[in-house]
Amino acid sequence: MTPSELFVIEDYRQVYEAVALPVLIIDHASWVILAVNDAALRQYGYTREEFVGMSVLEVRPPEGQAEARKVMSELPHGFWKATAVQHQRKDGSRFNADVWSRDTVVDGRSVRIATIHEVTERVQLQRELQQAQKMEVVGRLAGGVAHDFNNALTAIISGSHLLLGQYGHDPEARADLEAILKSADRAALLTRHLLAFSRQQVMRSEVFPLAAIVERCVELLERVLEPHIELRSRNDDGSWSVQIDAIQFEQVIVNMAVNAQDAMPDGGTFILDTANISVSPQDALQDPTVPAGDYAVLSVSDTGAGMDEITRARVFEPFFTTKPPPEGTGLGLSMAYGIVRQSGGYITVESAPGSGTTFRIYLPRVSSDSADTPTAAAAGPAGVRTVLVVDGDDEVRRSTGRVLTGLGYKPSYAASAEEALRTLDGSATAPDLLVTALSLRGMDGKTLADRLQQAVPALGVLFLSGYAMEGDDDLRDVTGGRRLLKKPFSVESLIEAVRQVNNEG
Hints:
The chain is α/β, with parallel strands linked by helices and 505 residues long. Helices cover 41% and strands 23% of the residues. Helix 8 (210-224) packs across helix 9.
């Protein structure tokens, strides 16, 4: 006699068939499925004849059955809920489910009635949210470290340049100082990568057709990639325009190309493909990775070894690398992630072992007439002799002041905007030039500059920045007597920035 014959459920069929969610009725002692509703047949793909008589453990993947057996052995009587449990259909595909179950007695037989609610989309959204939160926390940490490190590098680089001017005639001293500068430059590159990942790097965005940037990069890749890598490019002539820092975007593509080359040691194909894509609200609901909107999309593909799921989930984390030291720093793709996100775009990755890898970069479409119109530089007043240097780092203030002193300026110093205002309140004359960090404790450097320029419109302003606050559009166009200089900077960069401020003031 079959389990279904032993268990007469017809009187109750109308009740559980009316339930929209899958329902399984399970023998409490043997865990055999006694009855199912039509929703369960659709969800799992079995016929009713196949389903009835199966062990309920068989709806779990093989690797999850031991845990399921343990849990079911310990289930308390009464109501029980399990969340985000992985189940398996007849065809082997899997889904996540919340399971509500309750013991009851039907026709004198102890059974457990389980209701199944698929939550695969919810689980995926939770994973994506957790990943985004983790990346945000790591990004903030990376940005903070890079900002403080940039202050130290600014003093090292400026001081080394000053010492070169004094002791450069000594061959040994020159060699030592040049070695210091070379190491400082490598450290500065590291901080730029960290700032790019944390989306705090100063960007010089312009409007270009995406295909034009890719075509320009193809010429560079032809020199970068080794002969055993075939380079292909498929560009849409009608590629939409995007607003991005072209130099940094080229760096993104080159980093991906180098990674792809490493994944194809025996040769393969590297493909750049541009297209215009409109993501509808319905598409965004099904895949929330990219919001609804119009995008110019660059697909970057290779025919290499591919990545497993664990590697793919961590591929954008800074310092994560599958390469043995010292071959990989783990910063290339994290930098790419930061540059794309800071540009308002999105980046996804598809890969599987043996199937190659495809990155897709979605950049928001912008109007081709949205390019910034350069402001004509006005002839500025000559003979700037006094300068106020405002920075919270003692060494940055000192080294910057020494360079400006060597140029003939008379500097005064402040560690904060409030101290700067107090200094100026006690002075009979206003400075001709303000050199201030953007990031200050209390009032920030931009607010300080705004207040001082209200009183002295001709005041020239040079902002020093270890990073740019995301979304601050004022930093994208600092003309008309204002300039922005990224830390760490060389003596030559500082001199050139001051010259530009004077010419535009």
